[in-house]
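# step 3/5: fold
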Amino acid sequence: MDKRGLSAFLLGVLILQGSVSAQEAALFVPFVSRLDYEIKNNLLRLSWIDSPDVKGPVSIYRSPVPFGEDTNLAALVKLAEVPYGAQSYVDEAESPGTWYYFVAASDVSGRVYDLPIAMNNNISVSFAVSALNPGAGQNGAAESRAAPDPENLVKRLEATLAGDGVIISFTAPPAGERLVLYRSVEALNKNRDLLGAVIVQPDITSPFTDYPVPGIPYYYAVISEEDLVNGAVNILPGRNATTTAVEVPVNQSRVGLLGAGRDIRGMPLPVFSPTAAVPGMNTFTEIPARQELSPEAEKALENLYAAENKTPAAQKSPFIFPGDLEETGGGEEYALHHIIQKYFSPGDWENCRNELIQFLSLPRGRASEIKARFYLGQCYYFLGEERKGLFEFLEVKPDYPAEAGAWIDASLKKLTGND
């Protein structure tokens, strides 16, 4: 009899003897449910439903052999510990073969419930390709694909500053494939870095001129569209990805950014001309005689001038959207609320900035991304990095015109020294 069977036998004896009640003897093993995965290139995304019984952090384990009753978790690789409510985790494939993942629930005191339950909290994933070019099959498992020939990749990719634009030049592969240009605020060294990049143009030829937001360093990569479709991307820094960032100065004319200059501030009120608005007004040519102000008026003007020059500008207060301090929703919404509650609300601007940048490094829904950028702009503002904050507020202004507009004005006042 194995040790689990022996434990059940002894438990049954205790129940029969009346030492413990049947209710007390019931096993309490909280676990996550509906564990599933999807593969994109060499990235594996695990997803699950958290246990409703315990609300501690969730531990992710990986093993080359199946999980069982005698598995020693302490000897395995613990990939991460994610907060309750995140309900997803992204892992990168490192080598071919079958890997086993175990997602363990825990309570708020730190106790981990490490009982593997098949089809609930552990799962197997087969990778039949190298770590450089995996691809997802129809059934969710990875399929083998031929690695791209290095001679068919883009060569000598360069990003050169030219006024308010960046000239992208490269040597195209001889196959004549359609090429996709990526831009990122982080260095593009491996495949998973493309998750945080944006597609600038889906079909480009050399040279190509890009007009990024001034004041932000950017990296570039040019990838074959066919390799992207086949899941056979191969990033080689210094060849098809730049290794140094290029930054357009803020004081450029920005002719490549349509409407950017007009969107920083609202349109001013039109000039009102009484002579044009009132019929016959232009017939009055006399200039009214100058009159001295009364002593009371003079005194009032002096007090007004003194108050205007002595009263400091009001300090901008942090803004939190209603509901963001409540632990509601799941997935990325919960993760963002966790950052706001733990770092933004107490005013821990530096850690909040770092957490938000990490949050935005993965693809997010538009609502979560825009809100995260709005909070990131505020962090930059309170850290004295108003220039970076300004561009975040410009990014979210179409979605939050009133809120972002107020922060844009405050950032401009600080940048011009008028605050």
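# step 4/5: annotate
Residues 275 and 285 are 11 Å apart (CA to CA).
# step 5/5: archive (pending)
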